[in-house]
Design goal:
This protein is of the alpha+beta class. The chain is 54% helix and 19% strand.
Length: 74
């Protein structure tokens, strides 16, 4: 169980690092390609981070896009 928690935190950190380098929102697919994880893994982590108020996510047509919630940083 500890391994999964550690891996989950690593994935969250990688997503945040990727988004931190971007000035514009990027898609779940683009994040998954850069992070090296499946689209399904990335969407789940992005949704969890959105619930924690760390990301802002919205849809453009059929594509989910994400950006850091600068307001939610503490």
């Amino acid at each position: 169980m500890k391994f999964r928690e550690k891996r989950g935190k690593e994935i969250d950190k990688k997503i945040i690092d990727i988004l931190n380098k971007e000035e514009r929102p990027i898609s779940t697919r683009e994040i998954s390609i850069r992070a090296g994880y499946s689209w399904h893994t990335i969407i789940n982590h992005c949704l969890k981070l959105q619930l924690k108020d760390k990301l802002i996510g919205y849809k453009i047509s059929e594509i989910n896009v994400w950006l850091l919630n600068k307001k939610g940083e503490k």
